[in-house]
């Protein structure tokens, strides 16, 4: 009897491990190619071990005897973790997109560096925004549901909360439509965040370009058009430094907004799944 209880506990723990693994393999920073799979697997084992006593009462009833159903349950747990991880990735994509707005208007979009997380080349200012986002994600505390901790700790709070609100994945039209709606909302947050961060600098640089064009026509002997790129870069860097105290709170707020989206998605999860 005791052996059977341990066996049932192990199969239930595997459900927690599957969701945790899905999250760690898609969330920002840990999903980077430079992070070894072994590190992610060991971290998933540790987090699943810590979470299991807390969430085991919310887990669906499982039995290894029904092997096909158990495999589907493992896949559904991993899918929920992947969903949470990708929603967080969208926030970082918004910062990179804002950096691309800067780079295009400043005329430095041709200067690209490799993003270690996505393993693709992005404009240098997109990399700068991504690095700032990583620092904010790891070090800056913000309040959510009465807890004042860094953003990465809120990830694991969301993971624990997800077991309570979404113990399993329901494969019906209502659930799938709801998931697509929240993903669409997350992409809307991404573009709005990118615009809020990118528009001030982009607008100022656009005015600078128009002023250079007018001045070049009014005084052709100054040859201002040939100096346009250098002037745009200088003005862009100065404006970026001036606006940084405004941009960083916007970036921090975007994390909070995305956690709100994740919380709304979990709260709206079909109650029939429990």
Automatic annotation (TrEMBL):
One of its GO terms (cellular component) is plasma membrane. It is a multi-pass membrane protein. The chain crosses the membrane at residues 12-30, 37-55, 75-99, 120-142, 195-215, 227-248. InterPro entries: FliR (IPR006303), T3SS_IM_R (IPR002010). The keyword Cell membrane applies. It comes from the Bacteria. The keyword Cell membrane applies. It is found in: Cell membrane; Bacterial flagellum basal body. Pfam families: Bac_export_1 (PF01311). Keywords: Bacterial flagellum, Cell membrane, Cell projection, Cilium, Flagellum, Membrane, Transmembrane, Transmembrane helix. GO terms for biological process: bacterial-type flagellum assembly; protein targeting. Role in flagellar biosynthesis. Belongs to the FliR/MopE/SpaR family. This is Flagellar biosynthetic protein FliR. It comes from Leptonema illini. The lineage of its organism: Bacteria, Pseudomonadati, Spirochaetota, Spirochaetia, Leptospirales.
């Amino acid at each position: 009897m005791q052996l059977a209880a341990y066996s049932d506990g192990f199969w239930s723990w595997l459900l927690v491990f599957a969701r945790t693994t899905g999250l760690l393999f898609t969330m920002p920073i840990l999903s980077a190619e430079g992070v070894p799979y072994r590190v992610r697997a060991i971290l998933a084992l540790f987090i699943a071990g810590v979470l299991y006593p807390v969430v085991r009462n919310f887990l669906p009833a499982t039995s290894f005897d029904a092997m096909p159903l158990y495999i589907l349950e493992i896949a559904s747990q991993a899918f929920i973790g992947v969903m949470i991880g990708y929603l967080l990735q969208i926030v970082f994509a918004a910062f990179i997109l804002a950096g691309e707005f800067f780079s295009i208007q400043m005329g430095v979009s041709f200067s690209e560096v490799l993003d270690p997380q996505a393993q693709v080349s992005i404009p240098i200012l997109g990399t700068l925004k991504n690095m700032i986002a990583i620092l904010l994600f790891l070090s800056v505390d913000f309040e959510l549901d009465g807890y004042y901790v860094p953003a990465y700790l809120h990830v694991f709070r969301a993971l624990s909360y997800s077991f309570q609100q979404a113990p399993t994945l329901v494969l019906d039209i209502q659930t799938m439509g709801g998931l697509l709606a929240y993903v669409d909302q997350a992409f809307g947050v991404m573009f709005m965040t990118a615009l809020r961060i990118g528009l001030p600098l982009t607008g100022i640089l656009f005015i600078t370009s128009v002023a250079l064009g007018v001045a070049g026509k009014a005084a052709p002997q100054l040859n201002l058009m040939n100096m346009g790129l250098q002037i745009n870069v200088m003005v862009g860097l100065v404006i970026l430094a001036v606006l940084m105290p405004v941009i960083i709170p916007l970036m921090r707020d975007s994390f909070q907004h995305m956690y709100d989206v994740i919380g709304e998605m979990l709260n709206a999860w079909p109650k029939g799944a429990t």
